[in-house]
Amino acid sequence: MIRTENLTKRFGDNVAVDGLTLQVAQGEVFGFLGPNGAGKTTTMRMLSALVAPTSGSAWVNGLQVGADDAAIRASIGLLTEAPGLYPRLDAEQNLGFFAKLHGVQDVAGQVRTYLTLLGLWERRSEPVGGFSKGMQQKLAIARALLHEPPVLFLDEPTSALDPEAARVVRDFIETLREQGRTIFICTHNLDEADRLCDHVAVIKQRLIRVDTPEALRRGLYGQSVLVRLQQVSAQLHALVADLPFVHAVSDTPGGLRVSLDDPDENNPALVHALVGAGAAVQFVEREAHSLEQVYFDLMRESEVAA
What we know:
By secondary structure, this protein is of the alpha/beta class. Helix 3 crosses helix 4. The protein is built from eleven helices and 14 strands. The chain is 39% helix and 28% strand.
Protein backbone atom coordinates (compact mmCIF):
# COMPACT_ATOMS: atom_id res chain seq x y z
CA MET A 1 0.00 0.00 0.00
CA ILE A 2 2.91 2.36 0.82
CA ARG A 3 6.42 1.63 -0.38
CA THR A 4 9.61 3.66 -0.55
CA GLU A 5 12.97 2.88 -2.09
CA ASN A 6 15.97 4.98 -1.10
CA LEU A 7 13.71 8.01 -0.67
CA THR A 8 15.79 11.13 -0.03
CA LYS A 9 15.01 14.80 0.49
CA ARG A 10 17.58 17.60 0.71
CA PHE A 11 16.99 21.27 1.41
CA GLY A 12 20.20 22.84 0.16
CA ASP A 13 23.01 21.21 2.14
CA ASN A 14 20.61 19.88 4.78
CA VAL A 15 19.57 16.23 4.41
CA ALA A 16 16.07 15.93 5.87
CA VAL A 17 15.46 12.29 4.86
CA ASP A 18 18.32 10.03 3.83
CA GLY A 19 17.77 6.85 1.79
CA LEU A 20 14.50 5.71 3.36
CA THR A 21 13.35 2.24 2.32
CA LEU A 22 10.27 0.74 3.95
CA GLN A 23 6.95 -0.92 3.20
CA VAL A 24 3.53 -0.52 4.84
CA ALA A 25 0.95 -3.23 4.22
CA GLN A 26 -2.69 -2.61 3.46
CA GLY A 27 -4.89 -2.34 6.52
CA GLU A 28 -2.16 -1.73 9.08
CA VAL A 29 -1.48 1.14 11.43
CA PHE A 30 2.14 2.19 10.96
CA GLY A 31 3.88 4.43 13.46
CA PHE A 32 6.67 6.80 12.41
CA LEU A 33 8.77 7.79 15.42
CA GLY A 34 11.67 10.18 15.84
CA PRO A 35 12.76 13.44 17.48
CA ASN A 36 11.87 16.86 16.13
CA GLY A 37 13.76 17.48 12.91
CA ALA A 38 14.20 13.75 12.21
CA GLY A 39 12.39 13.91 8.84
CA LYS A 40 9.00 12.53 9.87
CA THR A 41 6.85 15.36 8.54
CA THR A 42 9.02 15.73 5.43
CA THR A 43 8.50 12.03 4.69
CA MET A 44 4.75 12.40 5.13
CA ARG A 45 4.71 15.39 2.78
CA MET A 46 6.63 13.47 0.13
CA LEU A 47 4.27 10.49 0.41
CA SER A 48 1.31 12.86 0.19
CA ALA A 49 2.72 14.33 -3.05
CA LEU A 50 3.06 17.78 -1.47
CA VAL A 51 6.87 17.91 -1.62
CA ALA A 52 8.97 16.37 -4.38
CA PRO A 53 11.75 13.94 -3.36
CA THR A 54 15.32 14.85 -4.25
CA SER A 55 15.94 11.22 -5.22
CA GLY A 56 14.55 7.75 -4.70
CA SER A 57 11.04 6.44 -5.35
CA ALA A 58 7.76 5.99 -3.50
CA TRP A 59 4.36 4.48 -4.20
CA VAL A 60 1.09 5.07 -2.38
CA ASN A 61 -1.94 2.91 -3.14
CA GLY A 62 -0.25 1.72 -6.34
CA LEU A 63 0.42 5.29 -7.52
CA GLN A 64 3.95 6.63 -7.97
CA VAL A 65 5.04 9.81 -6.28
CA GLY A 66 6.17 12.28 -8.96
CA ALA A 67 4.17 10.63 -11.74
CA ASP A 68 0.67 10.34 -10.25
CA ASP A 69 0.66 13.21 -7.77
CA ALA A 70 -2.88 14.48 -8.41
CA ALA A 71 -4.29 10.96 -8.11
CA ILE A 72 -2.35 10.40 -4.87
CA ARG A 73 -3.68 13.60 -3.32
CA ALA A 74 -7.23 12.62 -4.31
CA SER A 75 -6.93 9.13 -2.79
CA ILE A 76 -5.48 9.95 0.63
CA GLY A 77 -6.65 11.63 3.80
CA LEU A 78 -4.18 14.02 5.42
CA LEU A 79 -4.04 15.53 8.88
CA THR A 80 -1.25 18.09 9.10
CA GLU A 81 0.33 19.68 12.17
CA ALA A 82 -1.91 22.77 11.79
CA PRO A 83 -5.65 22.09 11.31
CA GLY A 84 -5.95 24.62 8.43
CA LEU A 85 -9.67 25.30 8.93
CA TYR A 86 -11.69 28.41 8.07
CA PRO A 87 -12.30 30.13 11.43
CA ARG A 88 -15.31 32.24 10.36
CA LEU A 89 -17.21 29.25 8.98
CA ASP A 90 -19.01 26.84 11.30
CA ALA A 91 -18.09 23.18 11.57
CA GLU A 92 -20.76 22.03 9.12
CA GLN A 93 -19.77 24.65 6.54
CA ASN A 94 -16.08 23.77 6.86
CA LEU A 95 -16.66 20.09 6.20
CA GLY A 96 -19.23 20.80 3.49
CA PHE A 97 -16.73 22.95 1.61
CA PHE A 98 -14.01 20.28 1.69
CA ALA A 99 -16.48 17.50 0.87
CA LYS A 100 -17.45 19.33 -2.31
CA LEU A 101 -13.79 19.81 -3.24
CA HIS A 102 -13.34 16.02 -2.98
CA GLY A 103 -16.44 15.36 -5.08
CA VAL A 104 -18.35 13.63 -2.27
CA GLN A 105 -21.81 12.63 -3.49
CA ASP A 106 -23.80 12.79 -0.25
CA VAL A 107 -22.22 15.89 1.29
CA ALA A 108 -24.77 16.43 4.05
CA GLY A 109 -24.77 12.74 5.01
CA GLN A 110 -20.99 12.46 5.19
CA VAL A 111 -20.68 15.68 7.16
CA ARG A 112 -23.26 14.52 9.69
CA THR A 113 -21.66 11.06 9.97
CA TYR A 114 -18.20 12.31 10.85
CA LEU A 115 -19.31 15.20 13.04
CA THR A 116 -21.37 12.67 15.02
CA LEU A 117 -18.61 10.08 15.22
CA LEU A 118 -16.19 12.63 16.62
CA GLY A 119 -18.67 14.20 19.04
CA LEU A 120 -19.09 17.53 17.25
CA TRP A 121 -22.61 17.33 15.85
CA GLU A 122 -24.15 19.44 18.64
CA ARG A 123 -21.57 22.18 17.90
CA ARG A 124 -22.04 22.07 14.13
CA SER A 125 -23.42 25.62 13.80
CA GLU A 126 -20.71 27.37 15.79
CA PRO A 127 -17.82 29.24 14.12
CA VAL A 128 -14.69 27.10 14.20
CA GLY A 129 -12.58 30.04 15.38
CA GLY A 130 -14.23 29.67 18.79
CA PHE A 131 -13.41 25.95 19.08
CA SER A 132 -10.74 24.68 21.42
CA LYS A 133 -7.56 23.25 19.91
CA GLY A 134 -8.82 19.76 20.62
CA MET A 135 -12.15 20.37 18.87
CA GLN A 136 -10.36 21.84 15.87
CA GLN A 137 -8.12 18.76 15.77
CA LYS A 138 -11.12 16.44 15.75
CA LEU A 139 -12.74 18.52 13.01
CA ALA A 140 -9.55 18.27 10.94
CA ILE A 141 -9.59 14.47 11.36
CA ALA A 142 -13.19 14.43 10.16
CA ARG A 143 -12.18 16.52 7.14
CA ALA A 144 -9.45 13.99 6.24
CA LEU A 145 -12.03 11.18 6.14
CA LEU A 146 -14.93 12.76 4.27
CA HIS A 147 -14.09 11.16 0.92
CA GLU A 148 -13.44 7.70 2.47
CA PRO A 149 -9.76 7.47 1.47
CA PRO A 150 -8.04 4.05 1.65
CA VAL A 151 -4.84 5.64 3.03
CA LEU A 152 -4.61 8.12 5.90
CA PHE A 153 -1.61 10.20 6.95
CA LEU A 154 -2.00 11.56 10.48
CA ASP A 155 0.56 13.94 11.96
CA GLU A 156 0.25 13.95 15.78
CA PRO A 157 -3.49 13.13 15.72
CA THR A 158 -4.02 13.40 19.50
CA SER A 159 -1.47 16.08 20.38
CA ALA A 160 -4.00 18.77 21.31
CA LEU A 161 -6.64 16.52 22.84
CA ASP A 162 -7.63 15.95 26.45
CA PRO A 163 -7.52 12.29 27.64
CA GLU A 164 -11.19 11.62 26.89
CA ALA A 165 -11.03 13.08 23.37
CA ALA A 166 -7.72 11.29 22.70
CA ARG A 167 -9.39 8.01 23.61
CA VAL A 168 -12.21 8.75 21.16
CA VAL A 169 -9.65 9.30 18.39
CA ARG A 170 -7.71 6.13 19.30
CA ASP A 171 -10.91 4.07 19.23
CA PHE A 172 -11.77 5.71 15.91
CA ILE A 173 -8.39 4.71 14.48
CA GLU A 174 -9.02 1.12 15.59
CA THR A 175 -12.37 1.20 13.77
CA LEU A 176 -10.69 2.51 10.61
CA ARG A 177 -8.15 -0.32 10.78
CA GLU A 178 -11.00 -2.83 10.99
CA GLN A 179 -12.40 -1.29 7.82
CA GLY A 180 -9.13 -2.08 6.03
CA ARG A 181 -7.76 1.48 5.92
CA THR A 182 -3.99 1.94 5.92
CA ILE A 183 -2.98 4.52 8.53
CA PHE A 184 0.45 6.17 8.70
CA ILE A 185 0.92 8.04 11.99
CA CYS A 186 3.69 10.44 12.98
CA THR A 187 3.64 10.73 16.74
CA HIS A 188 5.67 11.56 19.83
CA ASN A 189 3.21 9.65 22.01
CA LEU A 190 5.10 6.37 22.38
CA ASP A 191 2.55 4.72 24.64
CA GLU A 192 -0.13 5.46 22.06
CA ALA A 193 2.06 4.07 19.27
CA ASP A 194 2.64 0.92 21.31
CA ARG A 195 -1.10 0.37 21.70
CA LEU A 196 -2.18 1.31 18.18
CA CYS A 197 0.56 0.38 15.73
CA ASP A 198 1.14 -2.94 14.00
CA HIS A 199 4.66 -1.82 13.02
CA VAL A 200 6.75 1.18 13.98
CA ALA A 201 9.77 2.77 12.35
CA VAL A 202 12.33 4.80 14.28
CA ILE A 203 14.01 7.46 12.15
CA LYS A 204 16.60 10.18 12.56
CA GLN A 205 17.14 11.28 8.96
CA ARG A 206 18.08 7.64 8.25
CA LEU A 207 15.92 4.67 9.20
CA ILE A 208 17.22 3.18 12.46
CA ARG A 209 14.87 0.22 12.89
CA VAL A 210 11.46 -0.99 11.75
CA ASP A 211 9.46 -3.88 13.27
CA THR A 212 6.52 -4.65 15.50
CA PRO A 213 6.77 -3.08 18.97
CA GLU A 214 7.04 -6.54 20.55
CA ALA A 215 9.77 -7.68 18.14
CA LEU A 216 11.75 -4.52 18.88
CA ARG A 217 11.53 -5.33 22.59
CA ARG A 218 12.65 -8.93 22.08
CA GLY A 219 15.50 -7.86 19.82
CA LEU A 220 16.90 -5.43 22.38
CA TYR A 221 16.16 -7.19 25.66
CA GLY A 222 15.29 -10.81 24.90
CA GLN A 223 12.59 -12.40 27.04
CA SER A 224 12.84 -12.32 30.79
CA VAL A 225 10.77 -12.81 33.93
CA LEU A 226 11.02 -11.41 37.43
CA VAL A 227 10.79 -14.07 40.15
CA ARG A 228 9.87 -12.66 43.55
CA LEU A 229 11.19 -14.90 46.35
CA GLN A 230 10.71 -14.77 50.09
CA GLN A 231 14.45 -15.26 50.42
CA VAL A 232 17.21 -15.17 47.79
CA SER A 233 20.34 -17.27 48.10
CA ALA A 234 23.43 -18.05 46.06
CA GLN A 235 22.27 -21.66 45.85
CA LEU A 236 18.96 -20.69 44.24
CA HIS A 237 20.77 -18.34 41.86
CA ALA A 238 23.08 -21.20 40.78
CA LEU A 239 20.17 -23.64 40.47
CA VAL A 240 18.29 -21.35 38.09
CA ALA A 241 21.42 -20.57 36.06
CA ASP A 242 21.93 -24.29 35.41
CA LEU A 243 18.49 -24.84 33.89
CA PRO A 244 18.85 -25.64 30.15
CA PHE A 245 16.39 -22.98 28.94
CA VAL A 246 17.91 -20.13 31.00
CA HIS A 247 20.30 -17.70 29.31
CA ALA A 248 21.14 -15.37 32.21
CA VAL A 249 20.26 -14.73 35.84
CA SER A 250 20.75 -11.59 37.90
CA ASP A 251 19.71 -10.57 41.39
CA THR A 252 17.00 -7.97 41.86
CA PRO A 253 15.53 -6.55 45.08
CA GLY A 254 13.57 -9.46 46.53
CA GLY A 255 14.18 -11.93 43.74
CA LEU A 256 15.80 -12.87 40.45
CA ARG A 257 15.65 -11.60 36.88
CA VAL A 258 15.75 -14.62 34.58
CA SER A 259 16.33 -14.45 30.82
CA LEU A 260 14.93 -17.53 29.10
CA ASP A 261 13.75 -18.97 25.79
CA ASP A 262 9.98 -18.69 26.15
CA PRO A 263 8.31 -17.49 29.38
CA ASP A 264 4.97 -19.15 28.63
CA GLU A 265 6.67 -22.47 27.98
CA ASN A 266 9.45 -22.31 30.58
CA ASN A 267 7.79 -20.70 33.62
CA PRO A 268 6.20 -23.92 34.97
CA ALA A 269 9.55 -25.75 34.90
CA LEU A 270 11.28 -22.75 36.47
CA VAL A 271 8.80 -22.58 39.34
CA HIS A 272 8.89 -26.38 39.78
CA ALA A 273 12.69 -26.33 40.11
CA LEU A 274 12.62 -23.50 42.64
CA VAL A 275 9.88 -25.04 44.77
CA GLY A 276 11.66 -28.40 44.64
CA ALA A 277 14.73 -26.72 46.11
CA GLY A 278 12.68 -25.30 48.98
CA ALA A 279 12.26 -21.77 47.65
CA ALA A 280 9.19 -19.76 48.68
CA VAL A 281 8.01 -18.30 45.34
CA GLN A 282 5.73 -15.31 45.84
CA PHE A 283 5.03 -14.59 42.18
CA VAL A 284 6.49 -14.70 38.66
CA GLU A 285 5.81 -12.00 36.07
CA ARG A 286 7.05 -11.25 32.60
CA GLU A 287 9.40 -8.29 32.60
CA ALA A 288 7.85 -5.44 30.65
CA HIS A 289 9.78 -2.90 28.59
CA SER A 290 7.96 0.18 27.33
CA LEU A 291 8.24 1.37 23.74
CA GLU A 292 9.64 4.57 25.22
CA GLN A 293 12.57 2.61 26.65
CA VAL A 294 13.06 0.85 23.32
CA TYR A 295 13.00 4.20 21.51
CA PHE A 296 15.64 5.84 23.70
CA ASP A 297 17.90 2.79 23.61
CA LEU A 298 17.69 2.69 19.81
CA MET A 299 18.52 6.40 19.68
CA ARG A 300 21.56 5.86 21.91
CA GLU A 301 22.70 2.94 19.74
CA SER A 302 22.41 5.06 16.59
CA GLU A 303 24.45 7.88 18.15
CA VAL A 304 27.19 5.46 19.18
CA ALA A 305 27.23 3.90 15.70
CA ALA A 306 27.51 7.36 14.11
